Amino acid sequence: MKLDAQHLQAHNQQAAADHRAAFDYTAARLTRHGHDVPRLLDKIAALQIAIPSWALGTGGTRFGRFSGGGEPRTLEEKIADVGLLHAINRGSGAISLHIPWDIPQDAAAIRALAQSYDLVFDAVNSNTFQDQPDQALSYKFGSLSHSDKAYRRLAVQHNIDVIRHGEGLGSRALTVWLSDGSCFPGQQNFRKAFQRTLESLQEIYTALPADWKVLIEYKPYEPNFYSTVIQDWGTSHLLAAKLGKKAYSLVDLGHHLPNTNIEQIVATLMMEGKLGGFHFNDSKYGDDDLTVGSIRPYQLFLIFNELVYGMEDPATINPTPAWMIDASHNVKDPLEDLLQSVEAIRIAYTQALLVNREELEAARENNDAARAQEILQDAFRTDVRSLVAEARQRQGGALNPIGLFRHLNVRRQLVQERGLKTISTGL
Ligand code: AOS
Ligand code: ZN
Ligand code: ZN
Ligand code: ZN
User: Fold this and answer.
1) ipTM score of complex
2) pTM score, two decimals?
3) Mind listing the pLDDT tens digit for each residue in 155-179?
4) Rounded to the nearest 5°, which phi and psi values hold at 173?
5) Does ligand 1 lie within 6 Å of residue 326's CB atom?
6) What is d(CA 427, CA 414) in angstroms, rounded to the nearest whole number?
7) What is the distance in A from the centroid of ligand 1 to the CA of 177?
8) Cβ(102) to ligand 1 under 6 A?
9) CA of 90 relative to ligand 3 center, distance in Å
10) Which one of 98, 137, 206, 289 is at 20 to 30 Å from 390 when CA atoms are compared?
11) Taking the mean position of all CA atoms in its chain, how far away is CA 260?
C-alpha cells in the first residue's frame, strides 16, 4: 500500500494545535539558552536510519514464532514496507539487506523500486551462520574460521558474492557477523581460529571495491556458548586495524555483557577513526533485540552523547557511521516497533545535540562531577519530542507516526493484500 499524502496532512491538521504549543514552548526555551533551533531541525531531519530487511516480519525466538499476518513475502514487499515507514516518519530512508534471505534477482529493477520510495541501500549483510539448502559443506563447526580450508573458501566466496549483489544495488558496505566459536573448553584453538578468520577476511577485503567498507560486528556469545571468535570490540578492532583503512568495527548495542560501558567503547573507536557502523536495539539481559529505547533510554542518550562529540569534534577522523536498526521480536507489530525505534534514536540524538559541550569540558577540567551531571541531565530531561515531530513534519512526514499508522489501519490493509498466514523470507 502507498501512503495517501492528503490523508497524512489531514491527520497532521488534527494534531496541529497541540503540537504548535509544545514546539513553541521548547523552541523558545532552547533559543533563550543559546541554541540555534532551525539548525537543530536540519540536523534531526538529516539523520536517516537503515531498516533491516529481517525486521519486517515477526522475529520470534528459538522457541517459536507467532506470525502477525500481512508480513512481506518478497524483497519487493519488504521494500514497500520500508517505503511506507519512510513516508510516515521521513527518517528511515535506507534498507539493509541480508543475503541470501533477500537475493535481488534483478538488481537494476530492485534499485529502481527502492528509488521510487526514496530509499537507498545501506550495508549488505552476509550469512555464514546458517547452511543453505543446497550447500555442499556445513558451517556447523565454523565458517571464516573453520579448521578446513575448503569450508573457509566457501564462506569467503559467499561474502564476495554478497559484495557483488551490493554493488548492483548501490550499497557501499559489507557487514560481517560470524557465529564462529566453540561450545566447550578445549574445542577450539583460540589463536588458530583468530588467524584463520583474519586470513579469510583479508581475502574478502581484497575483493572490496575502492569506495567500500567492511564492518566487523562482534558479540560475546550465542549461538556458541563457550567462546566466540570475534567476541568483543577489542577483537573486532584488532581485525579492522590489521585489515586496513576500509575495515571498521560495528557496534551492536545488544552484543555486550551486562553493564558494559558501551559509550566508552564508542568514544575509543571514534578516537581511532574505526567506528564504521551501528546496530541499534535495546536489551535487559543479552542480545534481546528489543525496541530501541524501550529499556535503557539514558544509556542510549549517553551513547549518542559520545557519537555527537565524535562527529562534531573538528579534529575527528571517524567517518559518519552507518546507522542501522537490528531489532525484531515476537509481540509487537513489526512496523510499529520500527517506528518506535526510529523515534527513540532521533530523540536521543536530539538530546545529545543539546549538551553544552564547552560547559561540560569546563566542568571536567575543574573535576566538577556534580556540574557535569547537571549538564548531561539537563539535556536528557529536555522533552524534545516536539522538535523531532516538527523536523518530521517539515520533511512531509506525520506528526504522530504510530497514530497515523493505526488511523490508516495499515496492518489490516496489509493482511488484506498479503493474507494472514505470511512467512517472510529470513528468520
Ligand atoms: C546477530 O546477533 C547479529 O546481531 C547480526 O547483525 C545478524 O546478522 C542479524 O541480526 C541478522 O540475523
Ligand atoms: Zn547486529
Ligand atoms: Zn545480535
Ligand atoms: Zn541483534
Assistant:
1) 0.94
2) 0.97
3) 999 999 999 999 999 999 999 999 9
4) -150, 145
5) yes
6) 20
7) 7
8) no
9) 26
10) 289
11) 19
